[in-house]
Amino acid sequence: MIKRTLKVNGVEKFIICENDDSLANVLREKLGLTSVKIGCGTGQCGSCSIIINGKLKRSCTMKMKRVADHTEIITTEGIGTPNKMHPIQIAWMSHGGAQCGFCTPGFIVSTYALILSNPKPSRDEIRDWFQKHRNACRCTGYKQLVDAVQDAAAVMRGDMSEDDLLFKMPEDKRIWGSKYPRPTAVAKVTGTLDYGADLGLKMPEGTLKCALVQAEVSHANIISIDTSEAEAMPGVEKVVTYKDIKGKNRVTGLITFPTNKGDGWDRPILADEKIFQYGDAIAIVCADSEKNAKAAAAKVKVELEQLPEYMNAPAAMEEDAIEIHPGTPNVYFEQKIAKGDETAPIFDKAEVIVEGSYYVQRQPHMPIEPDVGFAYLDDDGKLCIHSKSIGLHLHAAMIAPGLGVELENLIMVQNYAGGTFGYKFSPTMEALVGAACLATGKPVFLGYDWYQQQTYTGKRSPFFTDIRLAASKDGKLLGMETDWICDHGPYSEFGDLLTLRGAQFIGAGYKLPNIRGLGKTVCTNHAWGSAFRGYGAPETEFGYEVLMDELAEKLGIDPFDLREQNIYRESEGDTTPTGCQPEVYCLEEIFAQARPKYEEVKKWAAEDAAEGFKRGVGVALGIYGSGLDGPDTAEAEIELNADGSVTMYACWHDHGQGADMGVLGTAHEALRPLGLEPEQIHLVLNDTRYCLNGGPAGGSRSQVVVGNAIIAACRNLLDAMRKPDNSYMSYDEMTAANKAIRHSGKWSAPATDCDENGQGSPFACYMYGLFISGVEVEIATGKVQVEKMRLIADIGKINNKLVVDGQMYGGLAQGVGLALTEDYEDIKKHSTMVGAGLPYIKQVPDDMELTYVETERPNGSHGASGVGELPLTTPHSSIINAIYNACGARVTHLPARPEKVLAAMKG
Ligand code: MCN
Ligand code: FES
Ligand code: FES
Q: Which of 250, 327, 341, 870 could serve as 265's disulfide partner, Cβ 3.0–4.6 Å?
C-alpha cells in the first residue's frame, strides 16, 4: 500500500492504493474521474490520456509507484464541464467530433496539451501530434478532429469567437438536414457520459466481478472441468460452468433459411462437450473483486483432447476434415444465383472474358471500447441484462431458451457503446452475465480487456470469390459467373444471410442481364463470423470492382468510362442482380458529379511524385441495401407530456453512429405542425422494458425502418390531437376528451425475400456511392499511402449533416485499413490494435471530400435512405485499383501489406 497526494484538476487529493495499481484505474475508481477511459489498456489508443505536470501521458500503463507525490494532473473534467465548456469541447461538438465518444476525452486532453505548446498548429502538426501520442479513433476518420482543433485554437487565440462555433437554429426552425449537434454530444465531449465500465463502478455493493476461463486451443473435446481449487480461492462466490445453466446452454442462431443443414443451436453459452474456437468460454468465476476472480480463473483445470484445427474454409472443406459440429457438414449452406439466361453459351461466344480470384480477410472491428456488460435481478425477479447489444429484442430471443428464462422475464438494456461496427449484432457476453447472475442470484459485472475483445468477439467472415465477366469488344457487359465461399467460423448465426449477400451484391450497380453462381457457407475453427459494417458488401463487391479494372485495361477503355457505360439506367429498365428495379436510378447523376473529381485526382496522379514513389488513381462503385431482407419491420411510440413536450420511446440502437440524433431529427421533422423546440422532444431509447421492438441497428436500416415507424407514431399522435380547424389540442384538452396520449407507429418495408435463385426485391431502399482514391506507393518497400479520397454518394435526403459526414469519413478510414493493414488471422500477432493494423491518423488521408446527390427515396423516412455501411462498401477496391494504376501491382488478396505489394510489383 502507498499513500499519494495528487493535485487533480486543481484540487489536492489523498489516495491510498496498491503499488501496482494503474493511475488510470485510481483516477476512475478512487476519484470518480471516469472521463479517463480504458480502451486498449496497453498504451496504444490514447483514450486514457491525461496531463501530468504539464505533459501529455497515457495513464493506463503508469503504475502508482511511479507517480510522485504532489504530481499535478489534468483530466477532461478539469478542462470544461457541461455548464462551462471549453472551446475545444465546443469545437468538437460543432464538427461532430464525438460519434461514439469513447476516444473523445482523450483527444480533448491531447488537444489541450497541444494548443498549450503550439497555439497555432498547422494541419500537419496536429496530425503529427495525434500520431505521436497515439490518439486512436475508430469512428470519425480523423478529418473533423483536425478541423475542430484548428477552430478551437483560433478561439483560444482570439481569432474567432466561440459563438461562431455554436449551432444557429435556422429561420424555419427545422433541424432536419442541418448540423444540429447530437443530444449526447455535451456529455461526450465533457467526459460525463457513462459507458458500461463507468456504470460498472456504480453498481450496488455486493456486485460480483466476473472473470472467464477461456479456451487456448481452437478445436478440442472436453474431457473434464475441475473447479475445486478455484472455488477455494479468496473472495470467490461461485465458479459457474455449463452444469449451472438451466436452459439449453445454447445461443440460437435463429436460422434464417430452411435449406441450412444446421439447426442453429450450435453456440454453447459455456462450453460443455467441445471447444470450437480459441477463446470459447468454459467457466465464469464470480468473486468479490476482479483481481480475485482472475486469480481463481487461472486455477480452473480443463482437460482436453485436441482435435485438428480448421483455420480457414479450404481446410474445413478437405475431404478428410471431420465435422466440427458432429452431424452437420462443414459446408452447411448453399445459395444459388440464377438471373436471366444460362451463361455458358454467352461465355462461349463472348468477345472478351476476364476472370479472377479474390480474398477479403477476417477484418477485426476494433472498437476502442472493449466489450462490457452486467446483469441483475430486479424487484420483480426479472433478469435484467445491460450490454452493448445493438439488437435488444433479437438478442433476448437468441439467449432466453439457452438460459432457461421466459422471454417476458428478460429485460435487455443498451448501455452507451464505444463503437461496435457490427460485432454487437451478435450477443457476445449477454448470456454469460445472465448465466452468472442466475447462478449466484447476485448482480454481476463482466468487462473484457482489449485482448479478449479482439480474440473473443466475432469478426468479418473472410470471402473467397471467383468471378468471370463476359463483355463485347466495345465494353458492354453480357454476363457474369461467380462462386463465393464464406468462412463463417464455428457458429452459424447469420452466416446463411451473409452468404445470400453474394447473390445480391456481386455485380451490383451494373446492367448484368445474365448471372449464374453459387455461394457456400463453411464452418471453421477460426473466429466466429459476426456482422461487420457492410455485411457482405466489402466482401462481395471487392472482386468484381477490381475485375472491372482488368476488363477496362483489356479493352483499352478508361475504368471510369467503362463503369459509366454499364451502370443501371432507367431508360433501359435495368435491374439489380436479384432481378428487381432499383428504387431510384441515380447512378447517372453520381457519375456526372464524379467526373470532375476523377479528372482532378487523375491529374494529380499524373504529376510527378517524389523520388522513389509512384502515384495512381482508382475508382470503384459501391452499393448496399438499407434494411434487413424482405418486409423488415419496426415499431416505436410517442407520448404527449403534461407540459406540452413529448417523449419518444424507440429501440434505435446506438453503436455510436448517432441514434439519438436519428430519432430526434426524424421526430422533430414529423412533429413540425406542433412547433416544438428540439429540447421538447425527450428520448427514452433502447430498453425493452419501455420500448417496442425496433429491430437491430444492422443493415443501415434504422433511418429507413425505425425512422418510418417514428414518423408513423408521430402521425398517429398528430391525428389524435388535431382539431377540426387543424389546430392541435393541448395535453389538458386531450385528457379532458379522454383521448389517448400515447401512440405507437409501425412500418414494414414493401420488399420481398429472395428465392432459391437469389431473385426478389429484398430492400426498399439502397445507398449508392462512387469511390475515388489517389495513392502513392513507395517502390522500394511497397508501402502505400492513401493521399486522397472522394466519395460521391446518394443516400437520399439527409437527416443530419454532421452525422452523415461523420459516417462517411469514418467508413472511408476503415476502408483504408481493410485495403492495407487490418487483419485477424494470427491469433497472437493480431491481438492488439497495432498488431491488427488499426489505422492511426497519419494512415488516413486528410484530403477527403464528400459530395451528396440527394435523390428522395419513395419509401425512405422523409425521403432518407440509410448511410452507415455505404462508405465501407468498396473504398478498398478503389485503393487496390489505384495501387495498380500507380505501379502495376495487382493485389487480389487483402490486406495489401507492403510485402504483398512488393511481390505483386515484382511479379
Ligand atoms: N442518417 C442521416 N441521414 C440519412 C441516413 C442516416 O442523418 N439519410 C443518420 C441516422 O440518423 C443515423 C446514422 O446516420 O444516426 C446512421 O443511420 P443508418 O444508416 O440508418 O444506420 P443505423 O442507425 O442503423 O446504424 C447502423 C450502421 C451500421 S449497420 C454499423 S455496423 C455502424 C454504423 O451504422 N456502426 C457504427 N455506423 C457506425 N458509426 C459509429 N460511429 N460506430 C459504429 O459502431
Ligand atoms: Fe491507455 Fe489505450 S492507451 S487505454
Ligand atoms: Fe472516436 Fe468513437 S468517436 S472511437
A: 250
